Give the backbone structure.
Amino acid sequence: MPGPFRTHVSRITVLTALFGVLVFCASLFLFFEPGSALAQTPFEQLGEASRLPQTDLITIIARLIRVFLSVLGILFVLLILYAGYLYMVSQGDPAKTEKARKIISQAVVGFIIIMASYGITTFVMNLLLKATGRQGIVQAPVERYAEPLGSALGAGIIDNHYPPRNALDIPRNTKIFLTFKEAMDPTTLIQGDGELNANNILIFETSRGKGAKLDSAAVRVVANEDRTVFVFDPVELLGNPTTDVNYTVALQPGLKKANGKNAFVGAYASGYGW
């Protein structure tokens, strides 16, 4: 009597452990997302609330592939559980034991194929991103730039901006984020139906000068409810896919606060640029 009881308890323990492994793996596949909202920066939170599209076709395809591979990973865990169950109830039957071993070996081979597929997919997607000038679009989180960028950020109206000054390797599909310390008059930054006020916000290739600035229709703009954060989304990709291109953003003296006063005064009366 003691023997069978101990064996029964052992099997229950093993099944419980295997079930725990299944739940753990499933949670990793289904709920873990690199760079998730658990560690969101202020600019990332703004991006979600900006009402601008945050995901393009390439990213959607990559996510679908990842979901498919995740499902295959869950099937691998289920096969291991099934094989383990067969092994435990085989009671020394060579046929059942051999069947369980074959399932385990085949599942392991399948898992290796899954991991190889994931590696190949990641490699190919990175090549596609690079070829289309969007390298880094999937793995380039917008980090808050805390280091002072200039005197205007210290005592002036500007609180922060992205991209930061002298930034390198910025994705061509980037959005420009601008935060102010006080509420702004949105009409001095946005005109018409969400278009850029190109008289006060100049975005241009540095080498070509202000004369090559993007016109109003080339940039979509949205703001938060407090009118302290603005997101500028160029309609076309910036730069070109073959060479690096530097851009300048110049904020003109025409910007005004919500109370009607000039945003740039005193030493900063000429505006701000980076």
Remarks:
- The chain has five helices and nine strands.
- The two ends are 82 Å apart (CA to CA).
